[in-house]
């Protein structure tokens, strides 16, 4: 089954706890939290304090996407704040193996993310060590951008890489995922769909989740 991870980047921050609770009640599988530092990406968002607040508002796993340079400095803080999955960008980690193991040794799941222009070969040597590959289908930094079509082929190749290595690694896709393209993305090999604007711009989250399940499973 495909898991749905609403990204709170498009939620109403003034009512964040309520928004997260509503997403949970609507049947979301995890909460995606976008951490941006204004350096790795041209936007500044959330830190460990907000992660801690979200943790108190929901039982769902927190999927924390670090779009920051030197993520190794903040791993402990995000683990303490309640992250269940911590994902770092390959482009931000010169010592990716060390960073990945630092996260694993803290007892939570680890993901590695690739920007649209980053080749899958950059994770070839680390794929056995990671739980999740986060494939960016937009250039990270903002919600509401358009899905880059060539990502579909990249997802497909990532799936083949996982299968040929007989691994359980899951593929998460982030950026421009909508009701209209969700099925294609899943058919290409995605296990988790991040949805920011497509989810939080809805009036009725429950109704949207129903439509989405119908779109995916008929
Ligand atoms: C983009 C973030 C995404 C963002 C997706 O840099 O990593 O998680 O919230 O937003 P949508 O679904 O609106 O493209
Ligand atoms: Zn994200």
From TrEMBL:
One family from Pfam that matches here is: Ribul_P_3_epim
| Keywords recorded for this protein, A-Z | Carbohydrate metabolism, Cobalt, Isomerase, Manganese, Metal-binding, Zinc
Keyword Ribosomal protein assigned to the entry: answer is no
GO MF annotation, one: D-ribulose-phosphate 3-epimerase activity
Tell me which residues bind substrate. Answer: 7, 65, 141-144, 174-176, 196-197
What binding details are noted for the cofactor? Binds 1 divalent metal cation per subunit.
**DNA damage: present as a keyword of the record?**
no
EC number in record: 5.1.3.1
Tell me a GO biological process for this protein: pentose catabolic process
Protein's name according to its UniProt entry? Ribulose-phosphate 3-epimerase
> What gene is it encoded by?
rpe
